[in-house]
Amino acid sequence: MNETHSYDPETFHPSITHSVYVTLEGSRLQLAYPRANIARWASFDETPHKAVFLHSRTYQLANCKVSLVPPGLARKRVWNRKYPICITLAEGEEGEESVVEGQETEEERAEKNTDPHQQFPVTLYLFGRTGREKEEWFQHFVSASRAGAQTSVSDEGNTGKKTSCLSDMEKFTCYSMPNLPFSIILSTIKESTEELPDFPGAMKARTLLDYSSYMIQLMGSESCNPTPSPCHSDKGSPTTCKKVSEKSEPTWVNCLVGRIFWDFLREKYWADQVAHKIQKKLSKIKLPYFMNELTLADLDMGTCLPHILSTSKPTLDSRGLWLQLELVYTGCLQMTLETKMNLCKLGKEGEDEAHSVPETQKVGSKMKLCILADSDEESSSAGSSDEEEVPPSELQGCVGDKSPVMAADGHTGGRTSRKILRFVDKIAKSKYFQKATENEYIRKKISEVSNMPLMLSVEVLELSGTLAINIPPPPTDRIWYSFRLPPRLDLHVRPMLGEREVTFTHVTEWIEKKLQCEFQKVFVMPNMDDLYLPLMTSGLDNPPASHHSSIHSSSQQSSMESQEYLSE
């Protein structure tokens, strides 16, 4: 995971986080700090890490408060990996630090000697490397805080001993389930629950047993020996199922979905809705200051929906229910993006910022919190430049991160692009360039280029691969989905400058490769996207306000108005 010692949504930047290896045993949380940071976000082609740990800290989560920050997040941002899990330790709880023998540097020894009574933070801010991991860790932390409270009451003072039957059972069910057959897991849980007294902790164990029995009745005995979930693979890539050949042809699903979405592909209303959604997302993309906003000029929804070729038998493990779908899409979705390059702004970046800073300072903090709480407002994508680019002012604010900032992220694309923009801006601000722009002929050419639209037409010819669907154990209100392996993504890209099409092979191949890379950052494991299902319960103390509540309030107001009318 990633950790930061303080969090403020107004000033936070991912560059101030550092890597930490998290281990949770019962209510005992251990944070191990490596010598060098790993990639901040998980990716499909990630190689196994051989970290060298310098020191570790141990905390007890008994009676701690686990929450999601910032408060008031919109429902679709609840499990976004950009926002941390906040753990507020119980009053009087202090962490214990241990140094790995032989790994302590001279600087750390000097710091320890100068400040022997160093206080550890009482509030921990931890970021998941994927959205799915964030939800899973949050539920583990909540369970540990509640189970730890029972353990601390029955066995106060023996924090390192595992005498509580409840904590043993929870540790077993949370961390050992993927490696054992499901029948053994059920028998172990049943034996543990029979020995427990009748108190609220035991009710949770019975609830887990009820959920497992319920799923077994639905799936049958043949599906009760699941393979490990895809995210538990050794190399970070998903493993294949044992019975891949046992698949069924879901013709009825294709017929049902195809009939329901018949009007979706033909009605202009739905095309406008999709275009509006895409445009809001495009507005969040950061472009150089001399370029206009990226707009969606044209959208063709295609001729058909994704077709399900086959489905695998469902499997069940500690991470929930898993299902695989073989998908193929050949509907030829096409969209055209447009922007303009305003060369008249070259060399005037500082002036624009000077005029815009006062307004940002006035409404910046309130505006950002409103955006985070607004479910209709779009946020930047998972691979957006705000996560890769590190402002120089924020480089000095890295606390506890002694390795280079770019090494923490594992990406250098944002740094390279900033170097190019600085080079262009340096040339534009030079006196030779400024003197050349005074020439009437050059000024005319600059105006012509500035009025010339830059267009990019992208056509999705084919998308095929294995889509994994995961529903975590309760409590959850999300359905997670992602491709297990990078799918076959056949794109046709046509960049155009005005009415002229750019036919350079290197340019088109670079754009196609960049789009495929962005696709993998979101829709290829271990990264997963989620869908909200209101029929399920999230288990959060303060769940985000749903659209149903607003409808209920409006209907209640209308009923009151009707009663007043009848009384009159």
TrEMBL record:
Keyword S-adenosyl-L-methionine: no
Subcellular locations according to the entry: Endoplasmic reticulum membrane
UniProt keywords, alphabetically: Endoplasmic reticulum, Lipid transport, Lipid-binding, Membrane, Transmembrane, Transmembrane helix, Transport
Compositionally biased spans, kind Low complexity: 546-568
GO biological process: lipid transport
Regions of compositional bias (Acidic residues) in chain numbering: 94-108, 378-391
Domain of life according to the entry: Eukaryota
Keyword DNA repair: no
A GO cellular component annotation in the UniProt record: endoplasmic reticulum membrane
Domain named SMP-LTD: residues: 244-534
GO molecular function term, any single one: lipid binding
Protein name as catalogued: SMP-LTD domain-containing protein
Lineage per the UniProt record: Eukaryota, Metazoa, Chordata, Craniata, Vertebrata
